[in-house]
Structure formats: structure tokens, C-alpha cells
Amino acid sequence: MIGIVDLDMGNLRSVANAVAAAGGESAWVRSPADLEGVTHAILPGVGSFRVAAERLAATGLHGALRAWATDGKPLLGICLGMQLLASYGEEGGGAEGLGLVAGRVVRFEEARVPKIPHVGWNEAKLTRKHPLFERVRSGVDFYHVHSFHVVTERPEDVLATVEYGGQDYASAIAHGSVVGLQFHPEKSQSSGLRVVENFCFWDGAC
Questions:
Q1: Residue 166: is it exposed, middle or buried by C-beta count within 10 angstroms (0-12/13-18/19+)?
Q2: pLDDT value at position 161?
Q3: What is the residue-wise DSSP string for 93-134?
Q4: Which one-letter DSSP state was computed for residue 171?
């Protein structure tokens, strides 16, 4: 059973549809109690880092998801959800993230990129092997939409990079049983669905 965290931010139905297409079942997670009976958790989201962080705190899911990951259970962050895995995000005046992947979420520098936000299909180049990308080749296009990006403290936590404006940024991150995707796998056709399927049947070990 895949628990999809509902912060009322973004189109969660498309994520649920992707889980179903991958052969999994899903349930909404709106409180810590909803994590009972769930084997995997997905944290999606679109919008402001600070607002999302405040909702995680208000619902009690901040501590619950940290405990979940500490227990070695699989957790996937998508788009804003990936950013929330980091220690701190600057958007909206700044807020603490879940701190599951050491790093900060910062805005693209206007002088270094063609435009903000970064929108479109771009190649995700794998930096190392990981079960999340099993049977997905490096360099496949995935759909990205974001104005902020994660800068990890540990280079080894970057699982894939995307080139934008002549520079590489984190497109996927991983630390233990925690993984994050800056792109939207649910909008990335067959390759995206393969990534979702890989997560749904992953035991959290690398």
C-alpha cells in the first residue's frame, strides 16, 4: 500500500493514477495515523516551500515522516516534495525542511539560466546506479517545472543531474531509504511510470 501525503498542494490524483498504472494501491495520508498499514510513502507537491513546511508541522507529519525514514521505510519526494526532504528552503522567507537529505533549496540565479522557472523536457543523467532507476537508461527526458533547486551538502546524495543554462543541477537525490525527484514522473510517460513502479516495489535498501 502506497501512502500519498496530501498537503492540499498540487494534483495528487495524477500521482495516484501513476501508482495504479504501476500496479500499486494507494491511500491518502493526511495525519500520522494514516501511515499505519502503509508500506511506502510519497510526498508530492506544487507551490511554496514555506507553506508546505508549515502544513507538515501543523498536521504532525513532519515528525512522523522523519521517524518513517529513520526506520528505513521507503519515502519518495516529488517536485516540491523532493525539496522538502532537504534541511532548509529559502522560498517564502525560509523554513526548515525534513532534514532527511543534508542541503538547502535555493532559487535559480537569473544571470545563469535562460529563464525562471525551468519548464520542459530535459535529460536526467544518472551519477550512480540505484534501484529507483532500474531499467531506465541515463539521459532519458523527464518533465521538469521548478524555480528552486536542491544543493546537497554531500555530492554522493545526488542521484541524477539535469543541465540547464550550461550548468548541472540535482534532478534526483537519494540517501538511504529516502529518494527525491525534481521532475514529475507522473507526467513523464513510460520512463516516468517505470520510476514510479520501481519505487512501489523497492524495499528501501540500496
A1: exposed
A2: 98
A3: G-EE---SEEEEEEEPPGGGSSSSSEEEEEEEEESS--GGGT
A4: E
Measure Cα distances from 13 to 21, 64, 75, 147 in Å: 12, 23, 18, 23
Please check whether residue 111 is in contact with residue 87, taking contact to mean a CB–CB distance below 8 angstroms. no
User: Nearest-CA neighbor of 108 among 143, 139, 144, 150?
Assistant: 150
pLDDT of residue 192: 97
- 108-132 confidence digits (pLDDT tens): 999 999 999 999 999 999 999 999 9
Q: Which of the residues are catalytic?
A: 79, 184, 186
Give the whole-angstrom CA distance, residue 70 versus residue 162.
Answer: 28
Q: Return the axis-axis angle of helices 49-59 and 61-70, rounded to nearest 10°.
A: 90
Its pTM surpasses 0.70: yes
Q: Which residue's entry shows cell 522538502?
A: 84
d(CA 139, CA 148): 22
Delineate the domains of the chain, giving CATH numbers in brackets: 2-200 (3.40.50.880)
Query: Most distant CA pair in the chain: distance in Å?
Result: 48
**Which element (helix H / strand E) includes 78?**
strand 75-78
H or E element in which residue 12 lies: helix 12-21
Average model confidence (pLDDT) across the chain: 97
Q: Residue 51 is inside which H or E element, if any? A: helix 49-59
Chain centroid offset of residue 134 CA: 17
